[in-house]
Amino acid sequence: LPPSSAANLRPGAEQKVVFITARVHPGETPSSFVCQGIIDFLVSHHPIAKVLRDHLVFKIAPMLNPDGVYLGNYRCSLMGFDLNRHWANPSPWAHPTLHGVKQLIIDMYNNPKINLEFYIDIHAHSTMMNGFMYGNIFEDEERFQRQAVFPKLLCQNAEDFSYSSTSFNRDAVKAGTGRRFLGGLLNDTSYCYTLEVSFYSYVLSGPASAVPYTEEAYMKLGRNVARTFLDYYRLNSLVERPLGTTPKTR
């Protein structure tokens, strides 16, 4: 890609940051394909991707558990830790990737020139179908309602994403996850989600027949996640329209 002239990358400019992580659980391979779809789309020449790059900064850690993936573990790291339960106090020695990512997020949070607006952690689910999200529960009703906006928009863009399966919780067993910990750390203009996608299939509206997921279908969900930021930030009018008709991202 040519060097960016985006205003949000100029020295001293205020940045809106979307932070995405994936593969904290090594066996959840679909999360890598979804993340690959996000990355491929964002660095492409698609007119929507260009608008997103001009207005947002995307920070992506595509593999939080590389040693676990290398060893073929299902859930834990080299040392036997479920990293997604150690966000509250990660050790630089025992959980180095988590420690590094958390420190980066805290540094951005403390930077007055950076607005960390989204954190999305991508997982795969072994029993449920479709893509869906987990969000947090807040005492502030307005904040709770605003949190539902992004998954509702994603549901409009991705036929395999289910808003009815999306839920908001604060289960004690999830307290050490990225979504729960950062949801309590960041301010009320930040939204933290777990994005789940089925290991095996999705059900479209209409006849309840399951459609098996493929690598391409996972990557398409990733592309639609990226596309949804255009709707969320109301940037649609800035997309350059070619003379011919353009097929929708979906």
TrEMBL record:
What cofactor is this protein dependent on? Zn(2+)
Q: Which PROSITE patterns match?
A: PEPTIDASE_M14
Protein's UniProt keywords contain Glycosyltransferase = no
Q: Does the keyword Hydrolase apply?
A: yes
Q: Which residues form the active site?
A: 196 (proton donor/acceptor)
The family database entries (CDD domains) matched by this protein are listed as:
M14_AGBL4_like
GO terms, biological process: proteolysis
Q: Which GO terms describe its molecular function?
A: metallocarboxypeptidase activity; zinc ion binding
Transmembrane segments in this chain: where? Answer: none
User: What keywords were assigned to this record?
Assistant: Carboxypeptidase, Hydrolase, Protease
In this protein, which residues make up the domain named Peptidase M14?
1-233
The record, for Pfam families, names: Peptidase_M14 (PF00246)
Q: Which family does it belong to?
A: Belongs to the peptidase M14 family.
Instruction: Name it.
Output: CBPC6 carboxypeptidase
The species this protein belongs to is Pachyramphus minor
